[in-house]
Design a protein that fits this description.
This protein is an alpha+beta fold and 134 residues long. The protein contains one helix and seven strands. The longest helix has 22 residues.
């Protein structure tokens, strides 16, 4: 069994930690003074190609389909939505809110080509989009 190079392992771990920190920073949101029209968080996405189609999966737990807008333009996919916080008149205290809430907008660069949105569905808390090349 070959031993792992400790420097290589530490570098890989540091890169992974940096990527996690950047992802958390993108998803950070603010209550109070933020303008409602500004995006507050960014959901993670998966893009998988099945020539000539592309499937984009956007993690949107708790977002209702009525609050999602999707469009394809200029080689990119734009997904905008609102995730409403679970607060109401009966809320007496907030002990922890770690899930991002508020408006988001995600611009997703697509592989080279012109695409058309063929299907849009919600599955297991994710928005699944199927696009095909024109």
């Amino acid at each position: 069994m070959a031993s792992r190079n400790p420097t290589s392992w530490m570098w890989a771990e540091a890169c992974e930690m940096l990527e996690r920190a950047q992802r958390m920073q993108r998803q950070f949101f603010r209550f109070g003074h933020a303008v409602e029209a500004q995006p507050r968080w960014e959901p993670p996405v998966d893009i998988v190609a099945y020539e000539p189609e592309v499937q984009v999966t956007v993690a949107l737990p708790g977002v209702t389909p009525e609050r999602v807008q999707v469009r394809v333009a200029n080689g990119a996919l734009y997904v905008t939505a609102m995730r409403v916080p679970p607060l109401n008149r009966e809320t007496t205290a907030v002990h922890r809110l770690e899930i991002p809430y508020g408006r988001f907008e995600r611009q997703i660069a697509l592989p080279a080509g012109r695409y058309e949105l063929m299907e849009q569905a919600f599955q297991n808390g994710c928005l699944v989009l199927r696009l095909t090349k024109r």
